[in-house]
């Protein structure tokens, strides 16, 4: 999910936006950049549900718990409205 929504930029087809979306990731283009829409909420809640299920089925094993928490944070943090258009350390700048 991270690779698809947060690293791939541009659109796969011609858009009438004069190339404005060329520098935005797919997550930033969802619902024309509006925050807190139903599709964004669904895509933000689904990793949390998977995290809770994997924590339960691994019986809260410490090693799995740390790995799952790190992966959950790596998927949820870029989805926050504060990170809209932000490129950390210049990664994915162009």
TrEMBL record:
GO biological process, one term: regulation of ceramide biosynthetic process
GO cellular component terms, A-Z: endoplasmic reticulum membrane
Mode of membrane association: Multi-pass membrane protein
Keyword Glycosyltransferase applies: no
InterPro entries named in the record: ORMDL (IPR007203)
Keyword list, A-Z: Membrane, Transmembrane, Transmembrane helix
SUBUNIT field: Ceramide-sensitive subunit of the serine palmitoyltransferase (SPT) complex, which is also composed of SPTLC1, SPTLC2/3 and SPTSSA/B.
Family membership noted in the UniProt record: Belongs to the ORM family.
Role of this protein: Plays an essential role in the homeostatic regulation of sphingolipid de novo biosynthesis by modulating the activity of the serine palmitoyltransferase (SPT) in response to ceramide levels. When complexed to SPT, the binding of ceramides to its N-terminus stabilizes a conformation that block SPT substrate entry, hence preventing SPT catalytic activity. Through this mechanism, maintains ceramide levels at sufficient concentrations for the production of complex sphingolipids, but which prevents the accumulation of ceramides to levels that trigger apoptosis.
Name this polypeptide is given: ORMDL sphingolipid biosynthesis regulator 2
Organism: Cairina moschata (Muscovy duck)
């Amino acid at each position: 999910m991270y690779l698809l929504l947060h690293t791939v930029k541009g659109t796969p087809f011609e858009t009438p936006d004069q190339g404005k979306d060329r520098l935005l990731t797919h997550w930033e283009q969802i619902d024309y950049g509006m925050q807190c829409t139903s599709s964004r909420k669904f895509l933000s809640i689904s990793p949390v549900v998977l995290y809770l299920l994997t924590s339960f089925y691994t019986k809260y094993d410490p090693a799995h718990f740390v790995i799952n928490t790190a992966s959950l944070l790596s998927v949820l943090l870029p989805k926050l409205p504060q990170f809209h258009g932000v490129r950390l350390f210049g990664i994915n700048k162009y």
